[in-house]
Structures are given as C-alpha cells and as structure tokens.
Amino acid sequence: MIRNIFVFLVLVLNGCVLYLDDTSSRSSSSSSYGNVWLESAYLSCSYDAYWDISDWVFEIYADSYYGPYEVMEVGFYINNYDYQNMDYVGNGWWYRNIVSNYYDCDRYYHFDFVAADYDGFEGYYIYEW
Predict the structure, then answer these.
(1) Using one digit for the tens of pLDDT, what is the confidence trace for 10-66?
(2) Which of 124, 73, 119, 70 is nearest to 94 (CA)?
(3) Are strands 71-78 and 110-117 parallel, antiparallel or unpaired?
(4) Whole-angstrom Cα distance, residue 6 to residue 61?
(5) What is the pLDDT of residue 4?
(6) Per the count of CB atoms within 10 A, which of 36, 82, 96, 126 is most buried?
(7) Residue 36 has what pLDDT?
(8) Within 10 A of 124 (CB to CB), how many other CB atoms are there?
(9) What span, in angstroms and rounded, lies between the C-alpha atoms of 40 and 91?
(10) What is the largest CA-CA distance in the chain?
(11) 3-class secondary structure, 82
C-alpha cells in the first residue's frame, strides 16, 4: 500500500519512476535429473512509468558433469506458460532480457528454468518473484 502511494506521488511530481524490487523476499529451489544442474539465478526488474514498460534481466549458471560447455540449451517458463530461450554468454552463464508492458515488476511470477545437455539429461530451477 505504501509502495503504491509512493509510486503515485512520484508519477504526479516527476512523470517517471525507476522501480527496483527488493529480492530479499524471493524464493528459489533447484533439482537435477542426471548430470545437469542450474544455480545462482539472478533476476531484476526495473519499471518506467512514463512508458509503462518493465525491463527484466535473467541470468543463471548452468553446468553438467562434463562441464558447462556440454549444456546445450537453457530457457524458462513464465507462470508455466510463456517459454523464453536464453542466450549463452560464456563460462556457463546464460542471459535473457525482456522489455515488456505485459509482465509488470510488481506482480507475482513463477519462473521454471530448464537446462538440457547433449546427452538428454535435464536440470530444473524454480524461482518465485
């Protein structure tokens, strides 16, 4: 409630707000089926009220029994529905940026990260925003 009042006041006085959410209340869990695992997920979201756009950043580390270069694909589902494929940026890290006016920073989301290696093994990581 206080956050909504603050956002309203900033909008009225300034017209633009950058909203960075506190991640201390977020929860996550991981599991692996075979030789692939995911860890160290980082999610952030900033909101531009003037344009009504949320800018999401997703990063996660994927590794396998034979090393991070054996991980073939990493992606995630948003609320068990919308699948987003991630890009490999090196040393086992995968990245995705989403700019959207549909996925707002202040809503609850359930992210299911999935990774697969070349042998068909999978790993899962759940993050609740």
Answers:
(1) 655 665 444 444 444 466 666 656 689 999 999 999 999 999 999 999 999 999 998
(2) 73
(3) antiparallel
(4) 35
(5) 58
(6) 36
(7) 93
(8) 17
(9) 13
(10) 56
(11) strand
